[in-house]
């Protein structure tokens, strides 16, 4: 009988410890204390503001956009709206270089003049661009909103290059 009581007590302690570990882990992750605040699902977070873990919102400024200035992490301002065009780089009918020129910058002039050719983009290009929208310039977003929007931009459906409208873009 005494062994049964000891085994029961040990089992209760193990179960209690197990529940506390689960509760503590769940509580910490729901409060963002795990340190896993990667905003760019699948992308390097090296260009993100290092203080994001302690900030409840991020302001989408030109300085924030400037941190995303490479072909593997390309944000662009067009008409005071910010777009993550990273996933579109290789699909752009004008080539990667035409978009790369505007990474991390205000690309309004590039977009409006189709890279300096003086032509405007088609309605198809405008609708494609909308798929990569993150937010308005100087808008405050939470890190999770940015993560969701950049993830959506990365998963945007991109039309085939060979389409007639795309050749004009």
CATH class of the largest domain reads Alpha Beta
CATH homologous superfamily descriptor of the largest domain = Cytochrome b5-like heme/steroid binding domain
Q: Output the structural class.
A: alpha+beta
Separation, N- and C-terminal Cα atoms:
83 Å
- Mean pLDDT reading: 79
Note the run of SSEs as H and E: HEHEEEHHHEEHH
Regions with little confidence, pLDDT below 50 for 5+ residues: 32-47, 161-169
Q: For the report, how would you describe the main beta sheet?
A: 4 strands, antiparallel
Shape: elongated
Number of discrete helical segments = 7
Strand order of the largest sheet: 2-3-4-5
Question: What is the name of the CATH architecture of the largest domain?
Answer: Roll
Using the CA coordinates, give the radius of gyration: 24 Å
Q: How many beta strands in the DSSP annotation?
A: 6
Number of domains: 2
